[in-house]
Design a protein that fits this description.
Elements: E1 2-4, E2 11-13, H1 28-31, H2 39-47, H3 54-61, E3 67-71, H4 77-90, E4 99-103, H5 106-117, H6 124-129, E5 131-134, H7 135-145, E6 152-153, H8 157-170, H9 179-191, H10 204-222, E7 225-226, H11 228-241, H12 243-252, E8 255-258, H13 266-275, E9 282-286, H14 300-304, H15 306-309, E10 314-318, E11 320-321, H16 326-336, E12 348-349, E13 358-360, H17 365-381, E14 390-394, H18 401-409, E15 414-416, H19 430-440, H20 445-451, H21 459-475, H22 494-509, H23 515-523, H24 529-535, H25 545-559, H26 565-584, E16 594-598, H27 599-602, E17 607-612, H28 623-631, H29 636-658, E18 661-668, E19 672-673, E20 676-677, H30 682-694
Parallel strand pairs: 3-9, 3-10, 4-5, 4-8, 6-7, 8-9, 11-12, 13-18, 14-16, 14-17, 15-16, 17-18
Antiparallel strand pairs: 1-2, 2-13, 19-20
Amino acid sequence: MQTKHPLTSQPVVSEKVPKAKLAEPKSTKELVKESDADAFYFRALENKHIYLNEQQVKAVRQTDGPLLVLAGAGSGKTSVLTARAGYLLSVQKVRAERILLLTFTKKAAGELKDRLGLLPGVSKHSLRSMAVGTFHSIFLKLLYQHGYEHMKLLTSEKQKQVAVKMILKDMALKEEYDVETLLAQFSYYKNMMKSPEDLPAASSVEKEVKTIYQRYEEYKQSRNLLDFDDILYEVYKLLKENEEIRSKLQERFQYILVDEFQDSNLVQYEVLKMLAPPSQHIMAVGDDDQTIYQFRGSHHRLILDFPKEFPGTKIVTLITNYRSNPYIVGLGNDIIKHNQQRHDKTLLAVHTRGVAPRFFRPDTTVEEATCILDVIQSQVASGKRKYRDFAVIYRTHAVSRALMDQLVWKDIPFILHSQKQVFYENGLVKPILDCLRLAFYPDDLDALAGILPTLYLSKEKVLNEVIDQRFTDRMRGVEKPALAYLLDLSKLPSYQKERIAEKVSAIQSLKHLSPAEAIRKIREGNDGYDKYLQDNHRKTFTLQKELVQETLDELYDSAKPFKDSAKYLAFIDRIIKKQQENGLKNHIDQEDAIRLTTVHGAKGLEFPCVFLIGTSDGIIPHNSSLEAAEDRMSDQQNKKAKIAEAIEEERRLLYVGVSRAMEELYVSSPRFFRSKPLPMTRFLKEVYESKKTSD
């Protein structure tokens, strides 16, 4: 059965939404008796308006031996972490310098310090003495204290990119690889404790990447530089190779508390295993249901296997969700319970009321965007909410393209959270747009530089020749656009000159086509852009075919509403400018603007109202994820297991997206995606199929 959405007239699926059970309202007031030896501490917390529930109290009191705290979404893990650190100081009388509290982001570390400072028994002196910070900040201090004081920290992404560009230039590969992709891959290798020697070298691309990685490592070593990934790996090597230092650190850090443990990668895990003995007083707080960073080296097995690595582990499960309404909690429960590789837990809700999640299936992503903005603008106009109360969450950046276009059209404020570039500056789509730009602006040197690699020409050499020749001609009074100079390049074989002439002619012909027709022409044919990408394995290194195709098809889709290519390019420039303005804002968290973010970027955040878009099979689970899992395995049994593992991570992504919502949740699954029919994600179908069975 379907009803009409009251604000948009779009159909809304009106299936029965699961509702979470309510938690027992007991807190320390009832749970901790006055006769308890530690009652004074919990009474002091209550005076600070901190009331812990039964499971939180268990976690705080369990101070001896290894402890795994499974903290469900919105279950108050920060309160547990800080209250337990305060408990160690006030009740157990542990010296502050014996406590190590690790987290993953500067923001989280700052929040922990602020909240610790408000706790009873935590003086400014003890807070200064306690080691509280990110893995990187704490480990860097350890390195500087143990023989690494001559090393300098390589913090600038630009400097790292320059280093890799120098290596590529020296190897005559300057235009062949995407530098950011290479650096991300090197980071993954280091987090998985893989040196260049550990990499495969079966194909020519693998051999080249292995050499580039080796030379990047040599570049840093020769200059006494450490990047962020080196910090972790060097601490691992230091502890592994130096028993004296390892013993001293074990003696110093007798109590270890780790936040967001599910995000730990292999090297972090190995370091923790070396630091924890002999006391084994290690507390790991995390949620296996929110392990979504496998591409960075984290893996759900690390948190699942924690009790095996640390025998005698006590497990406390925080199941009271303080964030979301009972319908949102219930939906999350029913999604994630279908994962097999997880600790069993069902979250309870605290809020007794709330609006059930609304599911809608617009025909297209354009209708999806219109529906979303109608809801937002209606609530803002009525004074019910501000723009900052809304977040739009999606699986991949390309899914948000239609929405972002409408935000710019309608001049609605938005912020791209944790995103470096807009869709139209993506390295895959930019060469196509550069061709289109040159049709209208044949003297655009940046656009000219963008198409040179697709002609297998050196950017540096050709641009220098074009600039020099253009300067000479202008001195003689001859005006000619930069594009035309491609026809006059020296020292090229005749077959290449013919190919360039055909390309220049093709670009000039684009001016009279609609933008969608122009993009199709650029992509198609034996000399088209799609064929170039297909043949150039360096350019698509680490990118699945499905992801490449999705990105290019999305560009084509973006051009359909436009009849005039010049207006289309002007619109794109407007979007790029908007994103640059967003990047210049100093207080992004305080801006009254809609947040746009991937699920990966949204983890750890919460919003009053969330729109989860593109919840269709092929997007979530994403085809590229399943394709990658299949490509990694040759034998059928392992292949099946890897695909099942990939599906579970994709299901966790949907769960994380759902659990970001506090009060309202809208879940959208367009019927047609880039003109192709797509079914609603199997993860939502599972919920309602199991619901019908149980009913």
